[in-house]
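Please go through the sequence line and token line underneath and see whether the fold suits the sequence. See right below:
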Amino acid sequence: MANINDSLAKLLELDGALCAAVVDANSGMVLGKAGSGLDLDLAAAGNTEVVRAKMKTMKSLGLSDAIEDILITLGKQYHVIRPVVSKPGIFMYLVLDKLRANLALGRRAAQDAEQALEF
């Protein structure tokens, strides 16, 4: 098991990782952050809206399922949003450089960090 800082540090070891955060989707507040290249406080608030919108859409569609991750692909970056199963309302956010990172390894690292995270 790992605390927030350990989990974020582990994510940043990944080739191409730019920054990462753990976010409270109920408030949009950052619980922990590491790395650089983005205003993680602003990104956390914006991605909270993404998570909320997806949850609302799933409910409207009658889908009784859970989000594994949400991937946003930009021209130069991948943004991975991974809800923390053990703590509903909390998600991990990972930003990868598209040219240097392996997306599959990034998603796997986010999954591993999410599963190891303890509060």
